[in-house]
Specification:
The chain is an alpha/beta fold and 482 residues long. It has helices at 3-12, 42-59, 73-84, 125-136, 154-160, 171-180, 186-198, 227-233, 237-249, 262-272, 291-304, 318-326, 348-359, 383-394, 438-444, 454-457, 462-481, and strands at 16-22, 28-33, 65-68, 88-91, 104-105, 113-121, 140-149, 164-170, 253-256, 278-281, 307-314, 338-341, 367-371, 400-404, 416-419, 427-428, 434-435, 449-452. In the N-terminal section; belongs to the purine/pyrimidine phosphoribosyltransferase family. In the C-terminal section; belongs to the OMP decarboxylase family.
Length: 482
């Protein structure tokens, strides 16, 4: 089957679709590729694998094995392996908690070179993750082969990481073939071309040979959605409210009231309240805790329009955290809009906290952040742990609204990113806490909210200092939106 015939066939079985589709990032796209359907068309799957093999042969690439990016590329890699008698490795998306606990299945030795097989490449992230997992086992990766290159920066990103991408077909070719076959009209083709040109994932512009795209190729990428745009697209009531506060008060500042005195906390919050969107507390370090003080804190939150976030960092089994959240002297579920948790116990911790809110009649009015990354030196909240956090969040969007993290983990407006360890000047304290500036956090790490504690609490003038942080953070946000 010729490349032209294969592209038309993929269109006919709806592996290539045109219309309006919401991508994982939340972006509306006029084109969508669903190569998963080819498993129901064995003849097409064989043709796809053969086209990939020919691309590999033409590149003169040398390798000892192939590894398909899970999961869509696994059957394609299997076809290549069996048809050409080349060993295959399988990368797991998550480690088993029993047996050998391997991330890579199959026989290999350190130093082996493996070829990555993928169906579609947009940003190159999935390929990059597979490369990293293989590298962790001592397996080298120099090349990857893909059926469709969306020409949105993935090839450049992989090249920057030392991986050469070989593609059977680029999206510009797909559009050309389908237009000539009278499957697409000129308006649809132009709309997709403009979208691709305006949504590069690696740098501001897509650099490629002229293909009739004209000035659209030079469009700047809008890095982030505005707060109102995110508010209109997100689903959770608490997150909608937070985006509204951020827009109304023009702030992305969360103040961490790290003091052992409730009296001092109330005094400082009265001063900084006008400049913050969230107040973060550590209620269990308070020495003069009373229910009356909680009532006063809620009044301040109402007066100055900010959310309450108890930084409890739940980390136990579901049944235990359920009680820690709703019972005891603190009764956190009754007053804190947002809480956070480690995922070490597994998804049961989310279910336990969620059920506690539900039993109090607070479903939709309480939200959870997952601690995906930390700011302290030498912490182990990285790699597979962080990936597992993202996966659990995506599976629990009715309760999880974002992450405590050091960088952007998702472009979905249903998830917000909050970064601790922020000061006006970078540095490290005596206990290993690493500090970043508001500009670094917002514009370079693409986080959404800066968390500031001692920088404000230890200031001689908390109100003025909070206003300075509020302006720095919001200016960085405006820079992103421009």
């Amino acid at each position: 089957m010729s490349l032209e015939s294969l592209v038309v066939k993929l269109y006919e079985i709806e592996a290539v679709k045109f219309g309006n589709f919401t991508l994982k990032s939340g972006i509306q796209s006029p084109v969508y590729f669903d190569l998963r359907v080819i498993v129901s068309y064995p003849d097409v799957m064989v043709e796809v694998s053969e086209h990939l093999w020919k691309a590999v042969e033409a590149s003169k690439t040398e390798f000892a094995s192939v590894c398909g990016v899970p999961y869509t590329a696994l059957p394609i890699a299997t076809c290549m392996s069996t048809a050409h008698n080349v060993p295959m490795l399988i990368r797991r998306k998550e480690m088993k908690d029993y047996g050998t606990k391997k991330m890579i299945e199959g026989h290999f030795k350190k130093g082996d070179v493996c070829l990555i097989v993928e169906d579609v490449v947009t940003s190159g992230t999935s390929v990059s993750e597979t490369v990293q997992t293989l590298n962790n086992e001592g397996i080298k990766v120099k090349d990857a082969v893909v059926l469709l290159n969306r020409e949105q920066g993935g090839e450049q990103r992989l090249a920057s990481e030392g991986v050469t991408l070989h593609s059977v077909c680029k999206i510009s070719q797909v559009l050309d073939i389908l237009e000539k076959a009278k499957k697409l009209d000129r308006d649809t083709v132009q709309r997709v071309q403009d979208f691709i040109a305006s949504n590069n994932t690696f740098g501001n512009n897509i650099k490629r040979p002229a293909d009739g795209m004209g000035d659209a190729q030079q469009k700047k990428v809008k890095k982030v959605l505005t707060y109102p745009e995110r508010q209109s697209q997100c689903k959770h009531e608490v997150l909608k409210r937070l985006y509204g506060i951020m827009e109304e008060k023009k702030t992305n500042l969360c103040f961490s009231g790290d003091t052992t005195s409730f009296a001092e906390l109330l005094e400082v919050v009265e001063k900084v309240g006008p400049y913050i969107c969230i107040l973060k507390t550590h209620i269990d370090i308070i020495t003069d805790f009373t229910a009356e003080n909680i009532h006063k804190l809620k009044n301040l939150a109402s007066k100055h329009n900010f959310l309450l976030f108890e930084d409890r960092k739940f980390a136990d089994i579901g049944n235990t955290v359920k009680k820690q959240y709703s019972e005891g002297i603190y009764k956190i579920s009754e007053w804190s809009d947002i809480i956070n948790a480690h995922i070490i116990p597994g998804p049961g911790i989310i279910e336990g906290l969620k059920s506690a809110a539900g039993e109090k009649g607070l479903t939709g009015k309480r939200a959870l952040l997952l601690i995906a990354e930390m700011s302290s030196k030498g912490n182990v909240a990285t790699g597979e742990y962080t990936k597992a956090c993202v996966k659990m969040a995506e599976e629990n969007q009715d309760f999880v609204v974002g992450y405590i993290c050091q960088s952007q983990l998702s472009k979905d407006p249903n998830f917000i990113h909050m970064t601790p360890g922020v000061k006006l000047v970078e540095g490290t304290d005596s206990l290993g806490q690493q500090y970043l500036t508001p500009k670094e956090v917002i514009t370079k790490r693409n986080s959404d909210i800066i968390i500031v504690g001692r920088g404000i609490m230890n200031s001689d003038d908390p109100a003025t200092t909070a206003a300075t942080y509020q302006q720095a953070g919001y200016d960085a946000y405006l820079e992103q939106c421009s």
